[in-house]
Design goal:
The protein has 360 residues and is mostly beta strands. The protein contains 1 helix and 29 strands.
Length: 360
């Protein structure tokens, strides 16, 4: 189920599993790798009946790795093998961790199942949870019911981003250093009232179309300082039959410091994936359709292409990776890149990292 990389690219973590035919269950083993020296920590294996791991969600720069479990729990493993199950959020419900900031900040972000809505965005500071405010209305200007989720944050944990989760809406939200929520690129967000024809009843229903910036559950959208947020600019139009909605999408990058939105309309159907503080953005081609084919680098301030991620990694690190590799994250110091490829039938997704080695 993949792997995760720590904010400063100190560790990567995940798990392996082997089926125990005698016991009739899977045996899981957490694996943590120190990127600096390739030291691999293989923690004691355990049956999945103890902790039914689903996928890794985050790892700290001290090597604590968090997993979602199939029973809804969030479990953390340390390098020494200590196990911690995250407590429920007081007055809300089960926690769901999305990303962590630097160890010095002590910040984690995610959401919980409960609160004023079905889902509530959460920020932990040194293990103490706080439910974040939501924008006044949903992405479409309606009242909240399902809620929203925090997805990622800056390296120091002071700037956070997340997504709405009302129906299929996933409008990108960000919380500034004062904790004020707003829609990413609000200046380009436009609400349009229309009437949609219901073929089943033969009547019209009021509906709001939105042009704006949307995202997904990706934990790497924000640059380390919180200056940039990657996303997708999506427009909506009512079709001539007055029943269907036509969507168009392209990558967009939002500057939280200047409130400027940089839209790359020439990459129709692509999505923004990650970005550095210097404004080097990563675009996932064909991502709006659900499956990204490859990733392309763009210089956001100059609106120019910087080649595919495969070319950029070779030019930057001198390492050849498969052409169909997708770049997800670049470390704050630029020394490490993290992503995955879609090679082979037996290994449909392989996580990888490339790094410049530090001299001993």
């Amino acid at each position: 189920m993949g792997a995760v990389i720590s904010p400063n690219a100190r560790y990567v973590g995940g798990y392996t599993c082997i089926y125990d035919t005698e016991a009739g269950n899977w045996v899981n083993q957490v694996v943590i790798i120190d990127i600096r020296n390739d030291k691999k920590y293989m923690l004691d294996p355990f049956p999945d009946t103890l902790y039914p791991l689903y996928d890794p969600c985050a790892i700290t720069d001290s090597g604590n790795v968090f997993f979602h479990c199939e029973d809804g729990k969030i479990v953390m493993f340390s390098l020494s093998g200590d196990v911690t199950v995250l407590d429920n959020i007081p007055g809300a419900g089960k926690p769901w961790l999305s990303q962590v900031a630097s160890d010095e900040s002590g910040v984690w972000v995610g959401f919980c199942l409960g609160g004023e809505t079905l889902y509530s965005p959460v920020k932990w500071t040194d293990g103490v949870p706080e439910i974040l405010q939501k924008p006044e209305t949903t992405y479409r200007g309606y009242g909240w019911y399902q809620g929203c989720m925090a997805r990622g944050c800056s390296l120091d944990g002071t700037v956070i981003y997340g997504t709405a989760w009302e129906g299929l809406d996933s409008g990108l939200i960000w919380w500034d250093r004062e904790g004020t929520p707003r829609w990413v690129g609000d200046k380009v967000r436009k609400l349009k009232s229309v009437k949609i024809y219901d073929t089943a009843t033969g009547t019209y229903t009021d509906y709001t179309l939105v042009d704006g910036i949307v995202g997904s559950s990706d934990p790497y959208y924000m640059s380390p300082s919180g200056k940039w947020i990657a996303g997708t600019y999506r427009t909506e139009e009512l079709a001539e039959n007055e029943t269907d909605v036509i969507y168009t999408s392209c990558p967009a990058f939002y500057d939280t410091e200047t409130d400027e939105v940089h839209i790359f309309s020439e990459y129709e159907g692509a999505v923004g994936m990650t970005v550095t503080d210097e404004g080097l953005g990563v675009i996932g081609m064909n991502g709006a359709g659900g499956i990204i084919s490859h990733t392309v680098m763009v210089n956001i301030p100059t609106a120019t292409e910087a080649g595919t991620s495969t070319e950029w990694i070779y030019d930057t690190y001198g390492i050849i990776i498969p052409d169909n590799s997708l770049l997800e994250y670049i470390s704050p110091d630029g020394r490490t890149a993290f992503g995955y490829d879609l090679s082979g039938e037996m290994e449909p997704m392989r996580k990888w990292y490339v790094t410049r080695k530090t001299a001993e």
